[in-house]
Structures are given as C-alpha cells and as structure tokens.
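thought: user wants a sequence for this fold. calling inverse folding tool.
action: design(structure=
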C-alpha cells in the first residue's frame, strides 16, 4: 500500500488534478482519511513527513512489545519504509522478528531500522566524535540516525582531552565537517575544545558515563551548557538520536549543500 501522506505522493496527486486526470472530488476521496491512525494506546502520525520532511520515529523505551508491534503493523499497512525504532533491547528486536517484521537491529546503539528500503543518497559531511570508547553507544545512535536520514557520517572515536594529541592529529577531518557532534561524559570538555577549533556548528551530547560526582551526566551537561566556545549547542543527556537528527537538519539546510 502506498503512503498517501508522503510529500511526493501528495504532489503527484495534485499534479493529476492539475492535468485533469482526476477530479477534485476524487483527490478529496484520496485525502479523506485522517492524517493519523488512532490505535487507542498510540496515535500514529502520517503527516509528519509532510510537515517535517521525516516520517514518525518510534521511541521504543518502556513501550510494551505488543504496542510496538501494533504501531509497526499500522505503519506497514500505510506503506512506510525505513522506520527508525530507538532504544529497544535485543529481546524486543527478536520478538519483533519472530512476529514477521523485517528489521536491522544495531545492538550497540539499541536502534532498529524497520522495513528497510531504498536509502537516500548520502550528502554533506557530519563528524561524530567521542571522548571515550564508553560513549560509543550514544555516538552510534547519532551516527545511524544521521545516515538513515541521508547524510555522510565520519566516526572519530576515543579522542577525548585526556590525550589531546589524539584529537589534534585529526584536525583535517574536523575542518572538513559541515557539522560536528561531540559526545562525552565525565566533565564533558570535548565539546568546548572542538568548538574552539572549527567554524562549523557543534552539537554537544553529554553522556551518563562517569564516576559518582558525574551525577549520571549532569556534570557533563552543565559543562557543555557553560561552554566558552561560540557555536556550541547542547542536547539532553545520552540523546544521540536528537543530536543525529539535528545534525541532519543542519547538514541538509538549503544553501549549504
């Protein structure tokens, strides 16, 4: 089944009205359905791609497997492809596969790509840098999100300021980026250092990695919010998805590409 709420499908429908291939009444019948499905426990938004350029993405954490399956079944009926499902366990992924859903699960990021289809051409250049190897799960959530949305991604892992020479040795990569995602726990200083080296936007992602006084990522969050480097924005603790999504928006802004 085609997704009538996809931007290209609506433009095609309007073109048919313009050329006289169908009547206004026929087009109205096509669009008559509500722009979302009300499943009771969820309302699946099918106008999001039209409004935002990206279809609805499912936050899987704390959702019952049967609810996730119900949402995906409805999306499948509407012809959705390349649906991102974030923050799910291997057990939930296996459960969905057992129910017949086609998905690619990435265990490190706990992210799944459901109903995989043709991928968008990769454009631009997003660099994702991590303070340490312990931050990679958040980095991968950002990276896979950005890649799914059609961006070229370069991974630059374990370049934290405890060994600043590791980062400085990769300055050429940093200078070629259109946007950089800096992911770090502990005191979160990586974002400020990168922000002082480059002219492109930097998205800082504090992680919950660290010892007791890290307060589950709060110390890194506050450090990044108080960055003295200009051009640094901050997303929430461990929010790799949010960083990858925002990086995609910046990377694909009209006039940049």
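)
observation: tool returned 257 residues.
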């Amino acid at each position: 089944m085609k997704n009538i709420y996809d931007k290209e499908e609506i433009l095609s429908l309007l073109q048919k009205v313009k050329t006289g291939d169908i009547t206004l009444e026929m087009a109205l019948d096509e669009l008559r359905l509500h722009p979302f499905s009300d499943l009771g426990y969820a309302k699946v938004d099918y106008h999001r791609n039209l409004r935002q350029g990206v279809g609805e993405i499912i936050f899987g954490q704390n959702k019952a497997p049967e609810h996730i399956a119900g949402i995906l079944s409805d999306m499948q009926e509407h012809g959705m492809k390349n649906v991102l499902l974030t923050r799910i366990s291997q057990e939930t992924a296996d459960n969905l596969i057992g129910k017949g859903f086609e998905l690619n699960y990435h265990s490190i990021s706990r992210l799944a790509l459901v109903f995989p289809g043709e991928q968008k051409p990769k454009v631009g250049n997003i660099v994702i840098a991590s303070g340490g190897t312990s931050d990679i799960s958040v980095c991968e959530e950002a990276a896979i999100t950005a890649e799914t949305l059609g961006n070229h991604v370069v991974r630059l892992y374990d370049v934290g300021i405890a060994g600043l020479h590791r980062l400085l040795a990769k300055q050429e990569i940093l200078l070629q980026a259109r946007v950089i995602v800096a992911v770090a726990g502990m005191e979160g200083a990586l974002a400020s250092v990168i922000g002082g080296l480059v002219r492109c936007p930097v998205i800082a992602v504090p992680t919950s990695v660290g010892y007791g006084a890290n307060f589950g990522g709060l110390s890194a969050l506050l450090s990044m919010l108080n960055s003295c480097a200009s051009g640094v924005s901050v997303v929430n603790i461990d929010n790799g998805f949010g960083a990858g999504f925002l990086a995609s928006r910046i990377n694909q802004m009209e006039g940049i590409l």
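thought: summarizing for user.
answer: Here is the designed sequence. The chain has two domains: 34-114, 123-251.
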